[in-house]
Automatic annotation (TrEMBL):
Enzyme class: oxidoreductase
Needed cofactors: FAD
UniProt-recorded Gene Ontology molecular function terms: flavin adenine dinucleotide binding; N,N-dimethylaniline monooxygenase activity; NADP binding
Key word Transmembrane helix present: no
Coiled coil spans: none
A Pfam family assignment: FMO-like
InterPro entries documented for this protein: FAD/NAD-bd_sf, Flavin_mOase, Flavin_mOase-like, FMO-like
Family: Belongs to the FMO family.
Protein name: Flavin-containing monooxygenase
Gene3D superfamilies for this protein: FAD/NAD(P)-binding domain
Length: 430
């Protein structure tokens, strides 16, 4: 009998899960649940912020003029390239179209229940000691439909990790009279015309939003804890500063003691991992951006029929999803034997402690960055699928260098393949 698999979410991760599951009907039957009416997740742009028309929090964190910060040559799923006429760095609408094309190419739509929110996931253990999963879903457009109960053998959690803002609370923040916004709600730079704006946060959102606002704002301060000057040259009215110690009604006081007059304060401190639908009996802990107990950042070590896709950060997200999903399916179809629970927990702990030993903070437990290549290779070798092509690393490294040296122009570069395993970057347009 094929295993019945539930997939929560139809963003890139959920679609990839459905693509692999539906390709193997003798091993799996799959049903995806998506709380919105579309595929694409965070790439489905909306002008709205706050709640959608069904009363759900707006999921997308994409802004109006956003282009990708990775080239499509490394963004694509391994078995589905982007349209080759596109530039390397594309608009969010192109990524949304890509995911729509992927859905259509692999006939995934019929396997997804749209406007259906998963409210509850709980394990049920039979007398024979086998775990099955009880899911409760809700039709978000029609309250009269009531709740529906389902049973599955396995669950893939693909609910996305850029939707629930991690909001800082600084001394004096409630007294600040200017505009305060999390990057999740940022849509248009024009809103900040002629303002003195501070963007707090060292990640890609803080960096990219600071740069996008510079032509409109009077002065932009990009405030972060990282080393200064990692990206150059920056716009003349964009200044990197130390982080913020406190806010006053119309200014910010930095940790250096300097005071900056501000009209707006944008919080770019990232997002939280949240799984509001998991019952306590799932035994999943989320502690300051670390989710446990997971083997290889993806499979629950106690309930190995529960998987989490896409928790790792500083990666190539779509290739990461593809590898994690193939890895989980190999565990579920029995083609890969998993270590014991104790061995998996020990492996996770060893990885985590090694990370702490290099000076990384606890909250970077799932951050991979330069370690991602080894990680993908490990998943592939354990599960017996082909590793990702090495060229992805080369392209990625070249782009990282270009980004650091040419932050204002790197998105105008095109990745040109000069051999199957070699590429160069070429300037395509200004
Ligand atoms: P999402 O796209 O968030 O999809 C999750 C889906 O699950 C959503 O459709 C949601 O509605 C649904 N869902 C959630 N909870 C439930 C529930 N209880 N029941 C039913 N459905 C549910 N990646 C790149 O590769 N390149 C980039 O340039 C890039 N830039 C980015 C810029 C920004 C501003 C952000 C926020 C992210 C960026 N990313 C980028 C990362 C991006 O998040 C990933 O590429 C990827 O799209 C994440 O896919 P996902 O499926 O994990 O999550």
């Amino acid at each position: 009998m094929p295993l019945r698999v539930a997939v929560i979410g139809a963003g890139a991760a959920g679609l990839c899960a459905l693509r692999h599951l539906t390709a193997r009907p003798s091993a799996f039957t799959a049903l995806g649940f998506e709380q919105t009416s579309n595929v694409g997740g965070t790439w489905v742009y909306t002008e709205d912020t706050g709640l959608d028309r069904n009363g759900l929090p707006i999921h997308s964190s994409v802004y109006k003029n956003m282009t990708t910060n990775l080239p499509v040559e490394v963004m694509a799923f391994p078995d589905f390239p982007f349209n080759e006429d596109l530039p390397s760095f594309v608009k969010h609408t192109d990524v949304c179209q890509y995911l729509t094309d992927y859905t259509d190419r692999f006939h995934l739509r019929d396997h997804i229940r749209f406007n259906t929110q998963v409210e509850l996931v709980e394990p049920e253990t039979t007398q024979a000691g086998r775990t099955t999963w009880h899911l409760r879903t809700r039709n978000v457009t029609d309250p009269t439909c009531g709740l529906e109960d389902h049973k599955f053998d396995c669950v893939m959690v693909c609910n996305g990790h850029y939707a629930e803002p991690l909001v800082c609370s600084l001394p004096g923040q409630s007294q600040f009279k200017g505009l305060v916004m999390h990057s999740h709600d940022y849509r248009h730079p024009e809103v900040f015309s002629d303002m003195n704006v501070l963007c707090l946060g060292a990640g890609p959102s803080g960096r990219d939003i600071s740069i996008e606002m510079a032509p409109f704002a009077k002065q932009v301060y990009w405030s972060h804890k990282k080393k200064m000057g990692l990206y150059a040259p920056l716009p003349t009215n964009l200044r990197e500063t130390a982080t913020v110690a406190s806010l006053k009604p119309d200014s910010a006081v930095l940790t250096t003691g300097e005071e900056l007059r501000l009209d707006a304060f944008i919080i770019c401190t990232g997002y939280l991992y949240t799984f509001p639908f998991l019952a306590p009996s799932c035994h999943v802990k989320v502690e300051d951006k670390r989710v446990t107990p997971l083997y290889k950042h993806t499979l629950h070590t106690e309930y190995t029929s529960l998987a989490f896709i896409g928790l790792c950060s500083n990666t190539l997200p779509f290739p990461q999803f593809d590898c994690q999903i193939r890895f989980c399916l190999a565990a579920w179809d029995g083609s890969m034997e998993l270590p014991t629970q104790a061995e998996m927990d020990a492996d996770t702990e060893c990885d985590y402690k090694a990370k702490l030993a290099t000076g990384e903070p606890h909250r970077h437990a799932h951050k991979l960055a330069g370690k991602q290549w080894e990680y993908y290779d490990k998943l592939a070798s354990l599960a017996g699928f082909p590793p990702l092509p090495r060229i992805l690393q080369q392209i990625s490294d070249n782009i990282d260098d270009e980004r650091a040296n040419n932050i204002l122009g790197y998105k105008h570069m095109k990745v040109e393949m000069i051999a199957p395993d070699a590429c160069i970057l070429k300037k395509c347009h200004e």
